[in-house]
Prior knowledge:
With 437 residues, the chain is mainly alpha-helical. It has a domain at 201-311. The protein has 20 helices and no strands. The longest helix has 21 residues, at 86-106.
Amino acid sequence: xxxxxxxxxxxxxxxxxxxxxxxxxxxxxxxxxxxxxxxxxxxxxxxxxxxxxxxxxxxxxxxxxxxxxxxxxxxxxxxxxxxxxxxxxxxxxxxxxxxxxxxxxxxxxxxxxxxxxxxxxxxxxxxxxxxxxxxxxxxxxxxxxxxxxxxxxxxxxxxxxxxxxxxxxxxxxxxxxxxxxxxxxxxxxxxxxxxxxxxxxxxxxxxxxxxxxxxxxxxxxxxxxxxxxxxxxxxxxxxxxxxxxxxxxxxxxxxxxxxxxxxxxxxxxxxxxxxxxxxxxxxxxxxxxxxxxxxxxxxxxxxxxxxxxxxxxxxxxxxxxxxxxxxxxxxxxxxxxxxxxxxxxxxxxxxxxxxxxxxxxxxxxxxxxxxxxxxxxxxxxxxxxxxxxxxxxxxxxxxxxxxxxxxxxxxxxxxxxxxxxxxxxxxxxxxxxxxxx
Length: 437
């Protein structure tokens, strides 16, 4: 370990030990002591565990009453992710397992999410436990927020002890800070935040914008403006994200809205095209969410100019056209919007040979989502039938598993129930995962 990393890890360890007990409950974490921790799993490989670690009763609120078919798709997705062997695929396995857990959290399946977390074999276990703690804090469930934070803290200490890459510890630390912020523990937040790099502060910046005292609004906008002059990518990204949160929160105040929109328009000019496009789309989407279709239509013209001026690879061009089509439809230009959605599929067909098969699903899923946003579920299902077959082309099971998981999760997120044929095909692809990986 380098001297710089050693000093950073030592400082983080001292900080963690200094946080008051109220911030990290002394209750035993849900995870059993014999569950593998980050320090027990090599960063690149590990032996396959003979049996998954067990969890005890969590005490969390009962899981939400989700439709059975959506539960079944989540189960299929987690099974597909867990089929990847730990050796040598622990990173990819844990990554897509965490995506399923995030989806469970999104849909209120907190007990299921915690059960699944016990099967994550690397540092990402700490991240998902930290997010579960954050969600408990949001519900006002302080006991479980503290219990889960203690479990995330144990994973963080394990990661430090294993001398893993520091950004992994930072990801867990950021979730802990988010929970402390939600619980109003200002002193703990300050201690944690001092150890968090700008690259991991995005969620914290957004959360702070939501609880900013109204009297501090002008000062905060000025601060974001100064940060945008830093020319540091991570700092600028965080400042723009915080500004967009303020845009949503104070949308009805026209002067503030105009000020922050100008800040985003100008401040995002030097950002990558995909990121600038996303920021400007989000401003337009917020206008629609606030029922301001006229202003959304005006914003959309600026978004279209940004899109037209950029140079796109096909796997970014297709989702961009789909997003524009959805926005165009929702601002009142229905035929133009549907035309852009059709154009997105046309670009995919024309440029398909240039898109590696592992990225084709990522290009097409946003088209299906856009069709759902404009009330065209049959067209969305048609896109899913196509992308499922595209995802099955790779001879290796690892990328097929990743694509299958993301497709299942997208169907759950959109509440788009697959027909019998599509469902059978998804299940068949899940059963077919295996060597070669």
